[in-house]
Amino acid sequence: MCGIAGSIDFSLGVKRPNELSARMAQCLSHRGPDREGIYEDRLAVLVHRRLIVVDPDGGNQPMYSPDGNIILIYNGELYNTQELRTQLLSLGHTFTGYSDTEVILHAYLAWGTDAFQKFNGIYAFALWDKQAARLTLCRDRLGVKPLFYAQRGQLLVFGSEIKALFCHPAIEPQLDEDGLRTLLLLGPARPPHTGVFHGISSVLPGQYITFDTEHGLQPSFYWRLTAQEHTDTLEQTIEHTRWLVEDAAKRQLVSDVPLCTFLSGGLDSSILSMLASRTLRDRGESLHTFSVDYRDNEKYFTQSIFQPDYDSSYIQQMSDFLGTTHHEIILEHSDLADALPDAVKARDLPGMADIDSSLLLFCQAVRQHGFTVCQSGECADELFGGYPWYHEASILNTDGFPWSRSTDLRCAIVHDGLLRDSAEFVHAHYLRTCRAAPKLDTDDAKEARMREMFLLNLQWFMATLLDRKDRMSMYTGLEVRVPFCDHRIVEYAYNMPWKFKALDGREKGILRKAFADTLPEEIVWRKKSPYPRTCSPIYTARVTELLLKKLNDPTSILPELFSKKAIENLMAHPDDLSVPWYGQLMRTPQIFAYLLQIDSWFRTYNVTLI
Protein backbone atom coordinates (compact mmCIF):
# COMPACT_ATOMS: atom_id res chain seq x y z
CA MET A 1 0.00 0.00 0.00
CA CYS A 2 1.01 3.56 -0.51
CA GLY A 3 -0.08 7.17 -0.32
CA ILE A 4 -0.98 9.43 -3.23
CA ALA A 5 -1.69 13.15 -3.51
CA GLY A 6 -1.61 15.94 -6.04
CA SER A 7 -3.22 18.95 -7.61
CA ILE A 8 -4.42 20.06 -11.03
CA ASP A 9 -4.68 23.79 -11.57
CA PHE A 10 -6.07 25.15 -14.82
CA SER A 11 -5.79 28.75 -13.58
CA LEU A 12 -2.93 29.59 -15.91
CA GLY A 13 -0.71 32.31 -14.61
CA VAL A 14 -1.44 31.53 -10.98
CA LYS A 15 1.76 30.73 -9.18
CA ARG A 16 1.92 27.27 -7.63
CA PRO A 17 2.43 27.25 -3.85
CA ASN A 18 6.07 26.79 -2.90
CA GLU A 19 7.13 23.26 -1.94
CA LEU A 20 3.61 21.87 -2.39
CA SER A 21 4.83 18.47 -3.58
CA ALA A 22 7.41 18.20 -0.81
CA ARG A 23 4.83 19.01 1.86
CA MET A 24 2.36 16.48 0.44
CA ALA A 25 5.03 13.80 0.32
CA GLN A 26 6.11 14.48 3.88
CA CYS A 27 2.60 14.36 5.36
CA LEU A 28 1.95 10.96 3.71
CA SER A 29 5.34 9.47 4.55
CA HIS A 30 3.78 7.03 7.06
CA ARG A 31 1.75 5.42 4.25
CA GLY A 32 4.85 4.90 2.16
CA PRO A 33 8.04 4.93 4.21
CA ASP A 34 10.17 3.14 1.59
CA ARG A 35 10.28 5.49 -1.42
CA GLU A 36 9.09 8.85 -2.70
CA GLY A 37 8.24 9.91 -6.24
CA ILE A 38 7.09 13.27 -7.65
CA TYR A 39 5.90 14.44 -11.06
CA GLU A 40 5.33 18.10 -11.95
CA ASP A 41 4.41 19.95 -15.09
CA ARG A 42 2.76 23.29 -15.88
CA LEU A 43 -0.67 22.11 -14.69
CA ALA A 44 -0.15 19.05 -12.54
CA VAL A 45 1.54 17.89 -9.37
CA LEU A 46 1.51 14.15 -8.61
CA VAL A 47 3.02 12.76 -5.41
CA HIS A 48 3.62 9.14 -4.44
CA ARG A 49 4.87 7.54 -1.24
CA ARG A 50 5.60 3.83 -1.53
CA LEU A 51 5.35 0.92 0.88
CA ILE A 52 7.13 -1.86 -0.99
CA VAL A 53 5.20 -5.13 -1.05
CA VAL A 54 5.57 -6.49 -4.60
CA ASP A 55 8.29 -5.94 -7.25
CA PRO A 56 10.68 -3.66 -5.35
CA ASP A 57 12.54 -2.51 -8.45
CA GLY A 58 9.79 -2.52 -11.07
CA GLY A 59 6.95 -0.86 -9.16
CA ASN A 60 8.33 2.62 -8.59
CA GLN A 61 6.01 5.57 -9.13
CA PRO A 62 4.94 7.85 -10.68
CA MET A 63 4.81 5.35 -13.55
CA TYR A 64 4.79 6.53 -17.16
CA SER A 65 3.23 5.07 -20.28
CA PRO A 66 5.75 4.08 -22.99
CA ASP A 67 5.15 7.38 -24.82
CA GLY A 68 5.34 9.37 -21.58
CA ASN A 69 1.85 10.85 -21.99
CA ILE A 70 -0.01 9.01 -19.19
CA ILE A 71 1.30 9.22 -15.64
CA LEU A 72 -0.06 6.95 -12.88
CA ILE A 73 0.15 7.14 -9.10
CA TYR A 74 -1.49 4.25 -7.30
CA ASN A 75 -2.30 3.03 -3.79
CA GLY A 76 -3.48 -0.54 -3.32
CA GLU A 77 -3.19 -4.11 -4.44
CA LEU A 78 -4.63 -5.82 -7.51
CA TYR A 79 -5.52 -9.48 -7.00
CA ASN A 80 -6.07 -10.52 -10.60
CA THR A 81 -2.79 -9.13 -11.89
CA GLN A 82 -1.67 -12.28 -13.68
CA GLU A 83 -4.93 -12.76 -15.59
CA LEU A 84 -4.90 -9.17 -16.81
CA ARG A 85 -1.23 -9.31 -17.72
CA THR A 86 -1.90 -12.39 -19.86
CA GLN A 87 -4.72 -10.58 -21.69
CA LEU A 88 -2.57 -7.51 -22.24
CA LEU A 89 0.37 -9.57 -23.53
CA SER A 90 -1.98 -11.09 -26.11
CA LEU A 91 -2.81 -7.54 -27.23
CA GLY A 92 0.88 -6.76 -27.77
CA HIS A 93 1.67 -4.94 -24.54
CA THR A 94 5.10 -5.49 -23.00
CA PHE A 95 6.14 -5.20 -19.37
CA THR A 96 9.40 -4.28 -17.68
CA GLY A 97 8.47 -5.71 -14.25
CA TYR A 98 5.79 -7.75 -12.50
CA SER A 99 4.00 -5.10 -10.40
CA ASP A 100 0.24 -4.59 -10.42
CA THR A 101 0.93 -0.88 -10.97
CA GLU A 102 2.24 -1.57 -14.46
CA VAL A 103 -0.79 -3.77 -15.20
CA ILE A 104 -3.19 -1.00 -14.19
CA LEU A 105 -1.37 1.48 -16.42
CA HIS A 106 -1.40 -0.81 -19.46
CA ALA A 107 -5.01 -1.81 -18.82
CA TYR A 108 -5.95 1.86 -19.02
CA LEU A 109 -3.94 2.26 -22.23
CA ALA A 110 -5.77 -0.73 -23.72
CA TRP A 111 -9.34 -0.18 -22.54
CA GLY A 112 -9.60 3.34 -21.11
CA THR A 113 -12.00 3.68 -18.19
CA ASP A 114 -13.62 0.36 -19.18
CA ALA A 115 -10.54 -1.23 -17.61
CA PHE A 116 -11.79 -0.35 -14.13
CA GLN A 117 -14.53 -2.99 -14.34
CA LYS A 118 -11.86 -5.63 -14.89
CA PHE A 119 -9.94 -4.93 -11.68
CA ASN A 120 -10.24 -7.15 -8.60
CA GLY A 121 -8.55 -5.46 -5.70
CA ILE A 122 -8.39 -2.60 -3.25
CA TYR A 123 -7.11 0.60 -4.79
CA ALA A 124 -7.23 4.33 -5.26
CA PHE A 125 -5.30 5.88 -8.12
CA ALA A 126 -4.85 8.98 -10.24
CA LEU A 127 -4.10 9.06 -13.98
CA TRP A 128 -2.90 12.27 -15.64
CA ASP A 129 -3.22 12.55 -19.41
CA LYS A 130 -0.82 15.33 -20.40
CA GLN A 131 -2.00 15.70 -23.99
CA ALA A 132 -5.70 15.85 -23.10
CA ALA A 133 -4.99 17.76 -19.87
CA ARG A 134 -7.32 15.40 -18.02
CA LEU A 135 -7.11 13.89 -14.54
CA THR A 136 -8.90 10.64 -13.70
CA LEU A 137 -9.39 9.55 -10.09
CA CYS A 138 -10.65 6.04 -9.31
CA ARG A 139 -11.52 4.12 -6.12
CA ASP A 140 -12.16 0.42 -5.53
CA ARG A 141 -15.69 -1.00 -5.42
CA LEU A 142 -15.96 -1.27 -1.64
CA GLY A 143 -13.95 1.80 -0.70
CA VAL A 144 -11.25 -0.12 1.14
CA LYS A 145 -8.67 2.43 0.04
CA PRO A 146 -9.42 6.12 0.69
CA LEU A 147 -9.39 9.00 -1.78
CA PHE A 148 -10.46 12.58 -0.98
CA TYR A 149 -10.64 15.70 -3.14
CA ALA A 150 -11.58 19.36 -3.03
CA GLN A 151 -12.45 21.59 -5.97
CA ARG A 152 -11.96 25.31 -5.85
CA GLY A 153 -12.90 26.73 -9.24
CA GLN A 154 -10.30 25.53 -11.73
CA LEU A 155 -8.22 23.91 -9.00
CA LEU A 156 -8.57 20.28 -7.86
CA VAL A 157 -6.55 18.94 -4.93
CA PHE A 158 -6.67 15.25 -3.99
CA GLY A 159 -5.04 12.77 -1.64
CA SER A 160 -5.23 9.45 0.15
CA GLU A 161 -5.77 11.35 3.38
CA ILE A 162 -7.41 14.69 4.11
CA LYS A 163 -4.22 16.09 5.66
CA ALA A 164 -2.61 16.03 2.21
CA LEU A 165 -5.25 18.44 0.88
CA PHE A 166 -4.40 20.97 3.58
CA CYS A 167 -0.88 21.22 2.17
CA HIS A 168 -2.45 23.51 -0.45
CA PRO A 169 -3.25 26.96 0.98
CA ALA A 170 -6.54 27.10 -0.96
CA ILE A 171 -7.94 24.26 1.15
CA GLU A 172 -8.72 25.32 4.71
CA PRO A 173 -9.85 23.21 7.70
CA GLN A 174 -13.35 24.61 8.10
CA LEU A 175 -16.47 23.03 9.57
CA ASP A 176 -19.92 24.11 8.38
CA GLU A 177 -23.34 23.23 9.82
CA ASP A 178 -23.61 19.87 8.08
CA GLY A 179 -20.08 19.01 9.15
CA LEU A 180 -20.83 19.85 12.77
CA ARG A 181 -24.03 17.81 12.71
CA THR A 182 -22.12 14.90 11.16
CA LEU A 183 -19.46 15.13 13.86
CA LEU A 184 -21.89 15.29 16.79
CA LEU A 185 -24.87 13.26 15.54
CA LEU A 186 -23.40 10.63 13.21
CA GLY A 187 -19.77 10.39 14.28
CA PRO A 188 -17.60 8.43 14.00
CA ALA A 189 -19.57 7.62 10.83
CA ARG A 190 -19.78 10.10 7.97
CA PRO A 191 -21.96 10.26 4.85
CA PRO A 192 -20.21 8.30 2.07
CA HIS A 193 -19.58 11.33 -0.15
CA THR A 194 -18.17 13.69 2.45
CA GLY A 195 -14.90 14.31 4.22
CA VAL A 196 -16.74 16.20 7.02
CA PHE A 197 -14.60 19.31 6.47
CA HIS A 198 -16.31 22.02 4.42
CA GLY A 199 -15.80 21.56 0.68
CA ILE A 200 -13.92 18.26 1.00
CA SER A 201 -15.46 15.23 -0.67
CA SER A 202 -14.71 11.54 -0.93
CA VAL A 203 -14.57 9.63 -4.18
CA LEU A 204 -17.33 7.07 -3.68
CA PRO A 205 -16.69 3.34 -3.78
CA GLY A 206 -17.00 2.05 -7.35
CA GLN A 207 -16.68 5.58 -8.74
CA TYR A 208 -14.23 7.38 -11.00
CA ILE A 209 -14.01 11.12 -11.56
CA THR A 210 -12.54 13.06 -14.46
CA PHE A 211 -11.43 16.69 -14.34
CA ASP A 212 -10.58 18.82 -17.38
CA THR A 213 -11.26 22.29 -18.74
CA GLU A 214 -14.01 21.21 -21.15
CA HIS A 215 -16.30 19.35 -18.75
CA GLY A 216 -15.03 20.34 -15.33
CA LEU A 217 -15.56 17.68 -12.67
CA GLN A 218 -17.44 14.64 -14.00
CA PRO A 219 -18.27 11.69 -11.68
CA SER A 220 -19.20 8.27 -13.09
CA PHE A 221 -19.82 4.82 -11.61
CA TYR A 222 -18.15 1.73 -13.03
CA TRP A 223 -19.76 -0.54 -10.40
CA ARG A 224 -22.94 -0.64 -8.33
CA LEU A 225 -24.77 -3.35 -6.49
CA THR A 226 -27.71 -4.81 -8.39
CA ALA A 227 -30.58 -7.01 -7.26
CA GLN A 228 -30.66 -10.36 -9.05
CA GLU A 229 -32.53 -13.59 -8.56
CA HIS A 230 -30.58 -16.19 -6.60
CA THR A 231 -30.93 -19.45 -8.53
CA ASP A 232 -28.44 -21.69 -6.70
CA THR A 233 -29.71 -24.45 -4.44
CA LEU A 234 -28.71 -24.48 -0.79
CA GLU A 235 -25.95 -27.04 -1.47
CA GLN A 236 -24.68 -24.98 -4.41
CA THR A 237 -24.77 -21.82 -2.29
CA ILE A 238 -22.71 -23.43 0.47
CA GLU A 239 -20.16 -24.67 -2.04
CA HIS A 240 -19.93 -21.39 -3.96
CA THR A 241 -19.60 -19.37 -0.74
CA ARG A 242 -16.68 -21.56 0.31
CA TRP A 243 -15.05 -21.27 -3.12
CA LEU A 244 -15.41 -17.47 -3.22
CA VAL A 245 -13.84 -17.02 0.21
CA GLU A 246 -11.03 -19.48 -0.48
CA ASP A 247 -10.25 -17.86 -3.84
CA ALA A 248 -10.27 -14.32 -2.42
CA ALA A 249 -8.07 -15.30 0.53
CA LYS A 250 -5.57 -17.14 -1.67
CA ARG A 251 -5.28 -14.24 -4.11
CA GLN A 252 -4.51 -11.90 -1.23
CA LEU A 253 -1.52 -13.89 -0.01
CA VAL A 254 0.74 -12.61 -2.80
CA SER A 255 3.62 -10.68 -1.24
CA ASP A 256 7.37 -10.22 -1.52
CA VAL A 257 7.55 -9.26 2.19
CA PRO A 258 6.55 -11.06 5.44
CA LEU A 259 2.81 -11.68 5.85
CA CYS A 260 0.72 -12.58 8.92
CA THR A 261 -2.94 -12.69 10.02
CA PHE A 262 -4.98 -11.18 12.82
CA LEU A 263 -6.57 -13.95 14.90
CA SER A 264 -9.37 -13.30 17.40
CA GLY A 265 -10.63 -16.87 17.67
CA GLY A 266 -13.83 -15.83 15.91
CA LEU A 267 -15.17 -17.46 12.77
CA ASP A 268 -13.91 -14.90 10.24
CA SER A 269 -10.31 -14.54 11.38
CA SER A 270 -10.11 -18.31 11.97
CA ILE A 271 -11.18 -19.02 8.38
CA LEU A 272 -8.57 -16.66 6.98
CA SER A 273 -5.83 -17.93 9.30
CA MET A 274 -6.65 -21.51 8.36
CA LEU A 275 -6.49 -20.73 4.63
CA ALA A 276 -3.27 -18.72 5.02
CA SER A 277 -1.69 -21.45 7.11
CA ARG A 278 -2.55 -24.04 4.49
CA THR A 279 -1.04 -21.96 1.65
CA LEU A 280 2.12 -21.03 3.56
CA ARG A 281 2.61 -24.64 4.61
CA ASP A 282 2.60 -25.64 0.93
CA ARG A 283 5.38 -23.08 0.43
CA GLY A 284 7.38 -24.53 3.30
CA GLU A 285 6.60 -21.55 5.55
CA SER A 286 4.76 -21.20 8.87
CA LEU A 287 2.10 -18.64 9.71
CA HIS A 288 2.46 -15.99 12.38
CA THR A 289 -0.80 -14.82 13.99
CA PHE A 290 -1.50 -11.80 16.20
CA SER A 291 -4.16 -10.91 18.74
CA VAL A 292 -4.71 -7.90 21.01
CA ASP A 293 -5.89 -7.53 24.61
CA TYR A 294 -5.56 -5.13 27.53
CA ARG A 295 -3.75 -5.46 30.83
CA ASP A 296 -5.89 -7.46 33.31
CA ASN A 297 -8.93 -7.02 31.07
CA GLU A 298 -10.34 -10.46 31.82
CA LYS A 299 -10.92 -9.39 35.43
CA TYR A 300 -13.45 -6.79 34.35
CA PHE A 301 -15.13 -8.51 31.41
CA THR A 302 -18.92 -8.90 31.60
CA GLN A 303 -21.09 -10.68 29.06
CA SER A 304 -23.60 -8.79 26.91
CA ILE A 305 -25.56 -9.21 23.71
CA PHE A 306 -22.69 -7.45 21.94
CA GLN A 307 -19.82 -9.29 23.70
CA PRO A 308 -21.04 -12.78 24.68
CA ASP A 309 -17.67 -14.30 25.63
CA TYR A 310 -13.93 -13.72 25.94
CA ASP A 311 -11.49 -14.40 23.12
CA SER A 312 -8.38 -15.85 24.75
CA SER A 313 -9.26 -19.56 24.97
CA TYR A 314 -10.53 -19.60 21.38
CA ILE A 315 -7.38 -17.88 20.12
CA GLN A 316 -5.19 -20.48 21.79
CA GLN A 317 -7.33 -23.29 20.43
CA MET A 318 -7.01 -22.02 16.87
CA SER A 319 -3.29 -21.36 17.15
CA ASP A 320 -2.76 -24.91 18.45
CA PHE A 321 -5.05 -26.33 15.75
CA LEU A 322 -3.15 -24.59 12.94
CA GLY A 323 0.33 -24.76 14.48
CA THR A 324 0.89 -21.02 14.13
CA THR A 325 3.46 -18.92 15.91
CA HIS A 326 1.11 -16.72 17.92
CA HIS A 327 1.84 -13.28 19.36
CA GLU A 328 -0.46 -11.74 21.96
CA ILE A 329 -0.11 -7.97 22.16
CA ILE A 330 -1.08 -6.63 25.60
CA LEU A 331 -1.85 -2.91 25.72
CA GLU A 332 -1.57 -0.68 28.78
CA HIS A 333 -4.57 1.49 29.66
CA SER A 334 -2.48 4.64 29.99
CA ASP A 335 -1.05 4.08 26.51
CA LEU A 336 -4.57 3.65 25.17
CA ALA A 337 -5.61 7.07 26.46
CA ASP A 338 -2.33 8.72 25.46
CA ALA A 339 -2.71 7.46 21.87
CA LEU A 340 -6.13 9.11 21.33
CA PRO A 341 -4.57 12.23 19.69
CA ASP A 342 -2.41 10.06 17.41
CA ALA A 343 -5.52 8.17 16.30
CA VAL A 344 -7.05 11.53 15.34
CA LYS A 345 -3.97 12.39 13.30
CA ALA A 346 -4.15 9.00 11.62
CA ARG A 347 -7.84 9.31 10.67
CA ASP A 348 -7.87 13.13 10.23
CA LEU A 349 -11.15 13.04 12.17
CA PRO A 350 -12.43 12.04 15.60
CA GLY A 351 -13.01 8.31 15.31
CA MET A 352 -13.93 5.28 17.36
CA ALA A 353 -12.01 6.61 20.36
CA ASP A 354 -9.92 3.91 22.07
CA ILE A 355 -11.21 1.34 19.56
CA ASP A 356 -9.09 3.33 17.11
CA SER A 357 -6.13 4.03 19.36
CA SER A 358 -5.89 0.38 20.41
CA LEU A 359 -5.78 -0.72 16.77
CA LEU A 360 -3.10 1.86 16.05
CA LEU A 361 -0.95 0.51 18.92
CA PHE A 362 -1.69 -3.07 17.88
CA CYS A 363 -0.63 -2.44 14.26
CA GLN A 364 2.48 -0.65 15.48
CA ALA A 365 3.43 -3.73 17.49
CA VAL A 366 2.82 -6.06 14.52
CA ARG A 367 5.05 -3.85 12.38
CA GLN A 368 7.75 -3.93 15.04
CA HIS A 369 7.69 -7.72 14.86
CA GLY A 370 8.89 -7.39 11.25
CA PHE A 371 5.65 -7.81 9.29
CA THR A 372 4.55 -5.54 6.45
CA VAL A 373 1.34 -7.28 5.26
CA CYS A 374 -1.53 -8.75 7.23
CA GLN A 375 -4.93 -10.31 6.51
CA SER A 376 -7.94 -9.37 8.64
CA GLY A 377 -11.53 -10.62 8.83
CA GLU A 378 -13.42 -7.33 8.45
CA CYS A 379 -16.74 -7.22 6.59
CA ALA A 380 -17.99 -10.80 6.92
CA ASP A 381 -20.50 -9.64 9.56
CA GLU A 382 -21.93 -6.94 7.29
CA LEU A 383 -22.25 -9.32 4.34
CA PHE A 384 -23.53 -12.44 6.06
CA GLY A 385 -25.66 -11.00 8.86
CA GLY A 386 -23.30 -11.35 11.79
CA TYR A 387 -24.43 -8.45 13.99
CA PRO A 388 -27.20 -8.56 16.61
CA TRP A 389 -29.15 -5.90 14.74
CA TYR A 390 -29.78 -8.39 11.94
CA HIS A 391 -31.45 -10.81 14.34
CA GLU A 392 -33.03 -8.84 17.20
CA ALA A 393 -36.44 -7.75 15.89
CA SER A 394 -36.55 -4.69 18.15
CA ILE A 395 -33.31 -3.41 16.59
CA LEU A 396 -33.86 -4.72 13.06
CA ASN A 397 -37.14 -2.82 12.70
CA THR A 398 -35.90 0.41 14.23
CA ASP A 399 -36.60 3.36 11.92
CA GLY A 400 -33.00 4.53 11.97
CA PHE A 401 -29.38 3.40 11.98
CA PRO A 402 -29.45 0.23 14.11
CA TRP A 403 -25.91 0.69 15.45
CA SER A 404 -26.44 4.36 16.35
CA ARG A 405 -29.66 4.75 18.33
CA SER A 406 -28.16 7.43 20.54
CA THR A 407 -29.43 10.64 18.89
CA ASP A 408 -31.38 11.68 22.00
CA LEU A 409 -28.31 11.21 24.20
CA ARG A 410 -26.12 13.08 21.75
CA CYS A 411 -28.52 16.01 21.70
CA ALA A 412 -28.77 15.95 25.50
CA ILE A 413 -25.07 16.65 26.05
CA VAL A 414 -24.70 19.52 23.54
CA HIS A 415 -25.84 23.04 24.30
CA ASP A 416 -29.46 23.84 23.55
CA GLY A 417 -29.91 25.42 20.15
CA LEU A 418 -26.49 24.39 18.86
CA LEU A 419 -27.82 21.81 16.40
CA ARG A 420 -30.76 22.44 14.10
CA ASP A 421 -33.17 19.68 13.02
CA SER A 422 -31.02 16.99 14.62
CA ALA A 423 -33.38 14.02 14.34
CA GLU A 424 -34.40 15.01 10.81
CA PHE A 425 -30.76 15.27 9.71
CA VAL A 426 -29.96 11.76 10.91
CA HIS A 427 -33.20 10.25 9.63
CA ALA A 428 -32.80 11.79 6.18
CA HIS A 429 -29.43 10.07 5.71
CA TYR A 430 -30.91 6.79 6.90
CA LEU A 431 -33.92 6.99 4.56
CA ARG A 432 -31.82 8.02 1.57
CA THR A 433 -29.70 4.88 1.95
CA CYS A 434 -32.69 2.58 2.47
CA ARG A 435 -34.42 3.91 -0.64
CA ALA A 436 -31.27 3.35 -2.70
CA ALA A 437 -31.18 -0.39 -1.95
CA PRO A 438 -31.82 -2.31 -5.21
CA LYS A 439 -34.75 -4.72 -4.85
CA LEU A 440 -36.71 -7.27 -6.88
CA ASP A 441 -40.46 -7.14 -7.38
CA THR A 442 -40.56 -10.65 -5.93
CA ASP A 443 -38.92 -9.65 -2.62
CA ASP A 444 -41.20 -10.07 0.38
CA ALA A 445 -41.09 -7.60 3.27
CA LYS A 446 -38.35 -9.53 5.10
CA GLU A 447 -36.09 -9.82 2.05
CA ALA A 448 -36.62 -6.15 1.18
CA ARG A 449 -35.66 -5.10 4.71
CA MET A 450 -32.58 -7.29 4.63
CA ARG A 451 -31.46 -5.62 1.41
CA GLU A 452 -31.85 -2.25 3.12
CA MET A 453 -29.89 -3.49 6.10
CA PHE A 454 -27.17 -4.80 3.80
CA LEU A 455 -26.75 -1.43 2.09
CA LEU A 456 -26.93 0.49 5.38
CA ASN A 457 -24.17 -1.68 6.79
CA LEU A 458 -22.13 -1.56 3.58
CA GLN A 459 -22.20 2.21 3.14
CA TRP A 460 -22.09 3.29 6.78
CA PHE A 461 -20.97 0.80 9.42
CA MET A 462 -18.57 -1.18 7.25
CA ALA A 463 -17.23 2.04 5.74
CA THR A 464 -16.44 3.34 9.23
CA LEU A 465 -14.58 0.14 10.09
CA LEU A 466 -12.67 0.22 6.81
CA ASP A 467 -11.69 3.85 7.46
CA ARG A 468 -10.45 2.76 10.86
CA LYS A 469 -8.52 -0.23 9.56
CA ASP A 470 -6.83 1.68 6.72
CA ARG A 471 -5.80 4.75 8.71
CA MET A 472 -4.63 3.02 11.88
CA SER A 473 -2.64 0.39 9.99
CA MET A 474 -1.15 2.70 7.37
CA TYR A 475 -0.17 5.22 10.05
CA THR A 476 2.30 2.55 11.15
CA GLY A 477 3.30 1.42 7.64
CA LEU A 478 1.37 -1.85 7.85
CA GLU A 479 -0.72 -3.06 4.90
CA VAL A 480 -3.92 -4.84 5.98
CA ARG A 481 -5.88 -6.85 3.42
CA VAL A 482 -9.54 -7.73 3.86
CA PRO A 483 -10.46 -10.76 1.70
CA PHE A 484 -14.16 -10.68 2.61
CA CYS A 485 -14.34 -7.34 0.76
CA ASP A 486 -13.86 -9.09 -2.58
CA HIS A 487 -16.65 -7.64 -4.73
CA ARG A 488 -17.64 -11.09 -5.96
CA ILE A 489 -18.44 -12.13 -2.38
CA VAL A 490 -20.37 -8.90 -1.84
CA GLU A 491 -22.47 -9.37 -4.98
CA TYR A 492 -23.24 -12.99 -4.16
CA ALA A 493 -24.12 -12.25 -0.53
CA TYR A 494 -26.40 -9.34 -1.46
CA ASN A 495 -28.64 -11.59 -3.52
CA MET A 496 -28.54 -14.61 -1.22
CA PRO A 497 -31.92 -15.34 0.44
CA TRP A 498 -31.98 -14.60 4.15
CA LYS A 499 -33.01 -18.18 4.96
CA PHE A 500 -29.71 -19.31 3.41
CA LYS A 501 -27.61 -16.55 4.93
CA ALA A 502 -29.02 -17.21 8.42
CA LEU A 503 -28.93 -20.97 7.97
CA ASP A 504 -29.95 -22.95 11.06
CA GLY A 505 -31.18 -19.70 12.59
CA ARG A 506 -27.59 -18.53 13.22
CA GLU A 507 -25.76 -15.35 12.38
CA LYS A 508 -23.51 -16.06 9.38
CA GLY A 509 -25.11 -19.52 9.18
CA ILE A 510 -24.09 -20.07 5.55
CA LEU A 511 -20.46 -19.16 6.29
CA ARG A 512 -20.37 -21.49 9.29
CA LYS A 513 -21.75 -24.33 7.19
CA ALA A 514 -19.28 -23.65 4.37
CA PHE A 515 -16.29 -24.20 6.69
CA ALA A 516 -17.79 -26.60 9.23
CA ASP A 517 -15.61 -29.47 8.02
CA THR A 518 -12.32 -27.57 8.21
CA LEU A 519 -12.41 -25.81 11.61
CA PRO A 520 -12.90 -26.99 15.21
CA GLU A 521 -16.59 -27.28 16.09
CA GLU A 522 -16.30 -24.79 18.98
CA ILE A 523 -14.95 -22.16 16.58
CA VAL A 524 -17.56 -22.81 13.88
CA TRP A 525 -20.50 -22.39 16.26
CA ARG A 526 -19.07 -19.74 18.58
CA LYS A 527 -21.30 -16.66 18.97
CA LYS A 528 -20.21 -13.49 17.25
CA SER A 529 -17.85 -11.43 19.43
CA PRO A 530 -16.43 -8.10 18.26
CA TYR A 531 -12.98 -6.55 18.44
CA PRO A 532 -12.05 -6.41 22.15
CA ARG A 533 -12.43 -3.16 24.07
CA THR A 534 -11.02 -2.26 27.46
CA CYS A 535 -13.36 -2.91 30.39
CA SER A 536 -10.97 -1.57 33.01
CA PRO A 537 -12.04 1.13 35.50
CA ILE A 538 -8.46 2.41 35.25
CA TYR A 539 -9.12 3.56 31.70
CA THR A 540 -12.52 5.01 32.59
CA ALA A 541 -10.97 7.01 35.41
CA ARG A 542 -8.21 8.28 33.15
CA VAL A 543 -10.47 9.58 30.34
CA THR A 544 -12.89 11.02 32.91
CA GLU A 545 -10.06 12.98 34.51
CA LEU A 546 -8.79 14.24 31.15
CA LEU A 547 -12.27 15.26 30.03
CA LEU A 548 -13.00 17.24 33.20
CA LYS A 549 -9.82 19.23 32.60
CA LYS A 550 -10.87 20.03 29.04
CA LEU A 551 -14.36 21.10 30.14
CA ASN A 552 -12.71 23.62 32.48
CA ASP A 553 -10.19 24.80 29.88
CA PRO A 554 -11.23 28.08 28.18
CA THR A 555 -8.92 27.29 25.24
CA SER A 556 -10.83 24.06 24.46
CA ILE A 557 -13.72 23.87 21.98
CA LEU A 558 -15.57 21.49 24.31
CA PRO A 559 -17.17 24.10 26.62
CA GLU A 560 -18.46 25.86 23.50
CA LEU A 561 -20.16 22.69 22.22
CA PHE A 562 -21.12 20.61 25.24
CA SER A 563 -23.07 21.03 28.48
CA LYS A 564 -20.72 20.45 31.38
CA LYS A 565 -23.69 19.66 33.63
CA ALA A 566 -25.01 16.99 31.26
CA ILE A 567 -21.60 15.36 30.94
CA GLU A 568 -21.04 15.41 34.70
CA ASN A 569 -24.40 13.68 35.07
CA LEU A 570 -23.19 11.03 32.65
CA MET A 571 -20.03 10.66 34.73
CA ALA A 572 -22.12 10.18 37.85
CA HIS A 573 -24.22 7.45 36.19
CA PRO A 574 -21.81 5.75 33.75
CA ASP A 575 -23.77 2.49 33.57
CA ASP A 576 -27.12 4.02 32.65
CA LEU A 577 -26.64 3.79 28.86
CA SER A 578 -29.39 1.59 27.43
CA VAL A 579 -27.63 1.32 24.04
CA PRO A 580 -24.05 1.95 22.87
CA TRP A 581 -23.12 5.40 21.60
CA TYR A 582 -22.08 3.77 18.34
CA GLY A 583 -21.76 0.19 17.12
CA GLN A 584 -21.23 -2.51 19.71
CA LEU A 585 -18.32 -1.15 21.70
CA MET A 586 -18.66 2.59 22.32
CA ARG A 587 -20.13 2.93 25.82
CA THR A 588 -19.65 5.71 28.40
CA PRO A 589 -15.79 5.64 28.53
CA GLN A 590 -15.69 5.77 24.74
CA ILE A 591 -18.05 8.79 24.73
CA PHE A 592 -15.57 10.60 26.98
CA ALA A 593 -12.70 9.53 24.73
CA TYR A 594 -14.61 10.70 21.62
CA LEU A 595 -15.06 14.15 23.17
CA LEU A 596 -11.34 14.22 23.95
CA GLN A 597 -10.69 13.40 20.30
CA ILE A 598 -12.91 16.31 19.23
CA ASP A 599 -10.80 18.64 21.39
CA SER A 600 -7.60 17.20 19.92
CA TRP A 601 -8.97 17.47 16.37
CA PHE A 602 -9.89 21.16 16.66
CA ARG A 603 -6.47 21.95 18.13
CA THR A 604 -4.35 19.84 15.77
CA TYR A 605 -6.07 20.93 12.56
CA ASN A 606 -6.91 24.50 13.66
CA VAL A 607 -10.52 23.85 12.68
CA THR A 608 -12.74 26.92 12.37
CA LEU A 609 -16.55 26.91 12.51
CA ILE A 610 -18.25 28.72 9.62
Shape: globular
- Mean pLDDT value: 94
How many helix segments?
24
Task: Classify the beta-strand content into a percent band.
Answer: 15-25%
- State the strand order across the main sheet: 2-3-1-9-8-11
Poorly predicted parts: none
Helix content: 40-55%
The biggest sheet, with number of strands, parallel, antiparallel or mixed sense and barrel status, is: 6 strands, antiparallel
**CA-to-CA gap between the ends?**
35 Å
Question: Count of DSSP E strands?
Answer: 19
Q: What is Rg? A: 24 Å
> In terms of structural class, how would the helical and strand content be classed?
alpha/beta
Q: What are the key terms here?
A:
610 residues; alpha/beta; 19 strands; 40% helix; 16% strand
Gist?
The chain is α/β, with parallel strands linked by helices. It has 24 helices and 19 strands.
Structural summary, described in words:
The chain is α/β, with parallel strands linked by helices and 610 residues long. The protein is 40% helix and 16% strand. It has 24 helices and 19 strands. The strands form four sheets. Strands 2-3-1-9-8-11 form a six-stranded antiparallel β-sheet. A six-stranded antiparallel β-sheet has the order 4-5-6-7-12-13, covered by helices on one side. A hairpin with a 3-residue loop joins strand 12 and strand 13. Helix 10 (340-347) crosses helix 11 (354-368). The longest helix is centred in the last third of the chain and has 30 residues, at 445-474. The protein starts with a strand and ends with a strand. The mean pLDDT is 94.
